[in-house]
Queue: 2 jobs
Job 1
Amino acid sequence: MNARDLARQLRIHFLHSVTEPAEFRGELTVRLTEPSQLPEVAGFLRDELKFDLLLDVTSLDNYGEDPRWTLVYEFYSLAHRAHLRLKTDVSEEVSELPTICRVWRTAEWHEREIYDMMGIRFTGHPDLRRILMWEGYPYFPLRKDFPLEGRPSAMPEVAFSERAPLEGGPFVTAPGAKDAIRREPRVRRPGGEG
Amino acid sequence: MKTVRQVVQPDPAAAAELQGDRLVLNMGPSHPSTHGVLRLIVELDGEVITKAQPDVGYLHRGDEKIAENMTYTQFIPYTDRLDYLAPLANNVAYVLAVEKLLGLTDRMPLRGQYIRVICCELARISAHLLGLGAFAMDVGAMTVFLYASTQREKIYNLCESLTGARFTTSYTRIGGLARDLPEGWGEQCRQFAAEVIVAINEIEQLLTRNRIWVERTRDIGVIRPDAAISYGLTGPNLRASGVDHDLRKAHPYLVYDRVQFDVPLGSVGDCYDRYLVRMEEMRQSARIINQCLDQLPDGPVNVEDGKVVLPPKARVMTRMEELIHQFMLVTQGVNVPPGEVYFGAENPKGELGFYIHSRGGGTPYRLKIRAPSFVNLSILPELLPGHMMSDVVAILGSLDFVMGECDR
Amino acid sequence: MKQAAEIQYDSRLEGDLVVTRLDAAINWFRKNSLWPMPMGLACCAIELMATGASRFDISRFGAEVMRFSPRQSDVMIVAGTVTYKMALVVKRIYDQMADPKWVIAMGACASTGGMYRSYAVLQGVDRVIPVDVYVAGCPPRPEALLDGLIKLQAKVAREPVASVWKQPPQEPVRPAAALALDAPTQAVPKP
């Protein structure tokens, strides 16, 4: 059974919440319109469709759009040697969705990382703490409105952070910006225009 | 099979009486056997671990945020520093992901692909040698580390003549390689592949039937296949548990379908199995290198596409079109279509995956690195309890992680 | 005093006795047995291991005794990227080292933050601890690290020792700035 058949089965089983699979570069992506159904879908994927490996969980910040967050799950089936991506959107007001670490233990760290980097919470997670940054760091660094050079913060005895001197870098022009000034890397600020 | 806990405590009633306060011990982030900056907080009952909590992130450098602020090509040097024991393999994995997004995968010239495979396998030998050397040193066998080091220096010499650097290679480019093989490199590589086998045999004689080594690793840190899968383990750690999953076989990329090699599997999933699997993988890597050198075709190494690969300098100076291409590639980067891909490569530590979300243009909108070390470490809270404190170093050594990749 | 004077003129001891400044003797001992505290943080740690291993053999310079305990070491080799999360840990380990102590910042990251201009990386370890020698490179080759070590030895050789003992103890006696070999030998700047 290939990924397309498996995605179709998933679609049949969750007709109202899973979309038709879309294909790009040989990879199938389905969207889950109801994030609350995530644990059920995950359980079905693992137990019925034999997607036994959860490769990765990623979050996207669609800054300036609604819904703001997109969660991306990469599943792999050892039995069928098939890959499937599942995406689900979460709005900024909610910023919360159910955990799937009861289905795959590996999700525990991936979800902690997403909470750490993006500030999306997972209900039912046993240990939702920061993982890469230190406990008490006030920002979520992978959000698009957070600058690359960072912001100052201080926690006595634990850690501190400062603004890194970018000295005009990173030196990347922004293709498609409106005019030459906006294309110039030196005036570009993360989260800003261009 | 008995865990240490069962051996140490024969009578539960007597043991309960003996149980005293738990001792919380902090290990790392600066500790010789945490291989970098891993921190472990372990709760001990006597010498037996009751609870373990890894604390990662001491080397979190913000690679994913940096990637969003530069072109695809500019990010290649950062991939060197992910798993810094196998930079060549990281370079290859990253550009393969970008090429997949560009839709170039089927157009890559064969010679470049063979060279990339050689690079990946050299990196695998290099990473396993150091991982094994450090593992053995932690358990008390210093010689292995020095033997492994000698062989790694030979790999560094090869890397240096190939790329100009000892291990921050940045050798691949989107659509090809920085340069073709230097003259005589193939012969040197073949000679190394022969020499490393001798060294591996020597290491094997030192360890495989060494009583201390066997006692320290056998039945220690047993990972059952279902636990390994649930925790998302990949690479040698997964295969040592007996799960036959190797991306080079399951989804052959590059020219892995044109070479013959075996995928070693473990049966128990303990530290000893992980050691044996890595030893055999190195032999198979040498085998792959030899086959690639035999089959290596002539021809270009870069894809024929002026919008992806920098044109030759002579043409840039004489022709308008190439000049424009060069200018656009350098200032704006490769123009990547909108879309998203995930590409996983079988790296020495496991499946190194890149998820790239592009909204068009020369900069990724989001680049997520699926770091095998990060995932492999997540099993520690389940794996460590029940073991003695001294087993921690053996288990950590056998999991063979790199914090640069784990924390990104 | 009388005895000492006798020894000075005893011809039987000729050839077994060297007269030198106390500073020179102590610094000679110190500089040839610098025990490193390998603060291996990232990629540079691999080159640090290579420097210690068979081919480059740091023991030729008396610095092969890698001690993971700060109490037993003289020179901290900060090898790798220092993140903000790690910064105070590095400082704490440095504080635990016994005087006299020196620091080598190995590689671009430890010296300036290097290619990691980001929210998570300390822009140079000299923001938390004083650095004696900066070694350039990403990562520096083992030869470069050995060169840094030799430069540190040259610096150690010129440090005042006995004159400092006579003074009442005071706060950091060494300048945090980098070693400038060409600069005239500067005694400890008085606060």
Job 2
Amino acid sequence: MAQSVDLSGRELRTSTALPAVEVREVTKVFPGPHGETVVAVEDVTLTIQEGEFFSLLGPSGCGKTTTLRMIAGFELPTRGEIWIHGRPMGSTPPYRRPVNTVFQNYALFPHMTIYENVAFGLEMEGVPKDEIRRRVLEVLELVRLPGMESRRPRQLSGGQQQRVALARALVKQPEVLLLDEPLGALDLKLRKAMQLELKHIQHRVGITFIYVTHDQEEALTMSDRIAVMDRGQVLQVGAPAEIYEAPVNRFVADFIGESNLLEGQIARLEGERALIYVDGVELAAHRHAQEVQLHQAVTFALRPEKISLLATTAEVAPGHVSVTGVVEERVYIGTDTRYMVRIGDQAQLVVRMQNLTHQDADHFQPGDRVQLSWDPAVARVLVE
Amino acid sequence: MHESLSRRRGHRAQFWFLFTPGAFWLGFFFLLPLLIVLVYSFFTRGPYGNVIYRWTADNYARLLNPIYFQIFWQSLWMAVTTTVISLLVGYPLAYYIARQRQPWRNVLLLLVIIPFWTNFLVRTYAIMVLFRTEGVVNAVLQGLGVIQEPLQIMYTPFAVTFGLVYGYLPFMVLPLYASIEKFDFSLIEAAQDLGANGWRSFLRVMLPLTLPGIVAGCILVFIPAIGAFVTPDLLGGAKTMMIGNLTQQQFLKARNWPFGSAVSISLMVIVSIAAWIYFRYGEEEML
């Protein structure tokens, strides 16, 4: 974004070293309907870098929307402080914060035309009329809605309304754009298209995006970094691959993608490698520098696509470990085939094998004895 | 063919069944008397209060007399004042009620409606008890030493306006409540997010979107207020005469039915103009 010298006293947006948004030890407590208190956000600390596409991901009620609303200024933290580009926000009202929001239900003004909706924010700033006109038309071009200026919101489709909501916030050229599940109301196909488009738009305007979603796939697709939240707390912050490949606990492993999660005890420790005793079998995983004790109760975590199925007679790849099991179920899902394999009395592992050739799909039948092999380095020991 | 014919016959039967009773009622008890009043307004009063059936526009010409013009003007002024005060008091009240949790919200709404359960005359007498020279208000003010001599509150335009606001406030609050309750408050957040402070987001977003309730409330207060005669009669006395009192006086005391009719018709014209404004705005909102 172009940096201009602002003589009106507003601090300059120059230093790239300053994070776009810092959430420092923020707690939000709401009064409940029956006099009790509800802790919506508990001691959350986040640092969001300039130009980042940052997602807050978690199930409903995890505190992600409350966090976003505190950044926007609709809620004030009970404890802690929110900083935007090095300025503490304190109790600054929403209309004086350098951020804008795309609301979940769009919140377009029904009594105004599309043009008036988008122009509203600039009018409030006192921008001259001809400049408003230029910027509104420009931003409508950006969100691919030219020629819609004189329509009313209700005359537009859901996808178009979504674009208007985006245009209305972007036209203000905010330092940070906040998006509260903006694609939640759209159908799957439109949502996928808009995910890509949002990403393109973010690249073009270069504004920091903070994106709230409960859709893990959406977060993985779009984000530079993700904060996974549950019950008011941030569990893990990292790049999509990091969150997916190295979840810090059972919740994250379970919430992001599909995971085999088996509970057991540490049977043996061999340096990085830990052998976890699960239901009569020993499963090898890496402890990734975590401190674990012998006989400690832990969870063995392994993604289904990281396991290979082999005939019992076949040779296991070097460095891989294997256990034997019986195929219980096979589901063909086009790109892959999903197998449910029993490895102990209770324990089962889900395996996903890519269908690279025609024959791959019916290689193993339910009832077949098979070998399951994996690289212990990709299996993880999760400690609660 | 037969089927559609019988169906059409069914429609016709339904039409007569649903439409006729109400239409007959309104036609016979509203339109006909109204027509009689309209016709009478062009006749003349006889020497003994009878009606002489001779066409004349004198009754309307007489209304231009400053005395009557003054009464019309005062009525209009008081009705407008009543409407404005009701709006200024009613909007915050309706807003507050609409923002409460259930069941508290319904309890508050009930409290707004409760005065309707008692007789209007009794309530007006209660106001008299408050405003009399030896009334509650004067007693309290004198007791506190704010005033030495009792204030003359009764029989002033203030007392009448107060009585009218008190009587018609629920008609303002209820439509306002209906409008505000439907209002999507996330739009206020959107406006604030875009840089509008509380006042500007109210003016630019909430006010236009609750306009139908405002217009409906104003009409519902203005129309009965401009034709009121009990309240001005009891609280205003002879000094504060409104159109309603003039009409009543002409029909019952002066026994001048033709002139009373002309006054009524003139009032109806004023009210019709107000109603026309209402429907015009109402239609705009339908778009």
